[in-house]
Amino acid sequence: MVSKLFDETEIARRVEELAREIAVAVAGDFAIVGLLTGSFVFVADLIRVLDRAGLAPRIEFMKLSSYGHGKESSGAPRLIGGAPEDVAGRRFLLVDDIVDTGRTLDYAKSLLAGKGAARVWTCALVDKPSRRKIDFAADFVGFTVDDVFIVGYGIDYAENYRHLPYIGIID
Ligand code: IMP
Ligand code: MG
Question: What is the pLDDT at residue 67?
Answer without folding.
Answer: 58
